[in-house]
Amino acid sequence: MASNLRLPPNFHVIERGWLSANQIYIWSESFLDVIDSGFCTHQAQTVELLNLQMKTLTDVSPRFLINTHLHSDHCGGNAFLIDGFGFKLLVPFAEFDAVQDWDEAQLGFTELGQPCPVFSAFGSYHPDTVLTLGNLDWEIYQAPGHEHEAQLLFNPEYKILISGDALWEKGFGALFPNDQGFSNFEGALSTLELIAELQPEIVVPGHGSIFGNVSNAISFAQERLSYLRDNPERNLIHIANVLFKFKILEWQSCQNDVALSWFQNTLMLQRIAKLLNVSIQELYQQSMNSLIKANAMRVNGGQLFNA
Prior knowledge:
CATH architecture of the largest domain: 4-Layer Sandwich
Strand order of the largest sheet: 1-2-3-4-5-6
Largest sheet: 6 strands, mixed
CATH superfamily of the largest domain: Ribonuclease Z/Hydroxyacylglutathione hydrolase-like
């Protein structure tokens, strides 16, 4: 379907696996701008893909690297692209100080039990402004829900929306509970309503294929959101499963006791266990059973494997 969608000639999307977010290259006659940088363990692939793109662009220099939001699968390659290519990083405005101070508590990498190499930002970008990437203008909108400071980028000329994890073809990113135990269901709903108002014809999601059936995707996401809001415990269980699966994707295999130790020491999973009124060991076993049942993990003796 993506091949039938009208994309600018200077706009290239790389659909990556679930461990790394999709990347977008946008260029002009002089500059190349990149949106999101993937996960840190995929750094070699990230650099190789960029080198391949650069070979097709004559006299074009790297300029801006943009993060739609600061989760490790979207910004884990920042340090490598900044150091190796000289990109100037722009992050969502409210997170600039946390990046410059490398405030782990605010950035949340430790809370989610995920690594991210230290990087620094050149500047920030703001909602209700227009950002020029390549030679295309992008309207910026805040997109709370999955991540409060996440941003949408919308090009009205081609009606392209870069949605990050606010909208996928089948759903959206996990709605993590805050310190008080509340997930931002209302923020996620307002973001979906905003996307409907923008009326994009093409959506480039943070994960999965580009799609054009936007109204169907919004309807699916709204139904999914309603289900999770009416079943908050199910939402918490889903988050635990997502975090565990992401870690297994990172490791590919590990000893059971190593996985249990990671699970026990991950702050978000501790919070979820407390909210569900179960022990962290019980939550670990429940999540493992769910992933095995879904063929997302397999166990052989004391070893866990990605599946």
